[in-house]
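in:
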């Protein structure tokens, strides 16, 4: 098991933007059965995700770990087949250049 501390901090320097929270940062700890940092590096090698690789990979791993943990809940049961399909596509490697959207 891999253990992580996730921190989300606002970076908006626009003082005129309305704030919806009084918290200056959100921080929590999670475990994951995968090495998320190694996965980010693998996803960065793909030709279809590009600069969004870190956000995509971390978000997907956080999302999928919660779904797996609570997979018997009706809300999450609908996601299971789709999540499995997406992960299989990701594990399949980078698409050919003519498959890019």
């Amino acid at each position: 098991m891999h253990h992580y501390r996730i921190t989300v901090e606002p970076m908006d320097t626009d003082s005129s933007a309305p704030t919806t929270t009084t918290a200056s940062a959100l921080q929590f700890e999670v475990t994951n059965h995968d090495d998320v940092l190694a996965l980010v590096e693998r996803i960065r090698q793909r030709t279809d995700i590009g600069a969004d690789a870190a956000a995509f990979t971390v978000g997907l791993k956080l999302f999928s770990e919660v779904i797996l943990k609570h997979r018997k809940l009706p809300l999450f049961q609908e996601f299971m087949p789709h999540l499995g399909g997406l992960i299989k596509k990701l594990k399949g490697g980078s698409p050919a250049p003519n498959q890019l959207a």
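note: Residues 96-101 have pLDDT under 50 and may be disordered.
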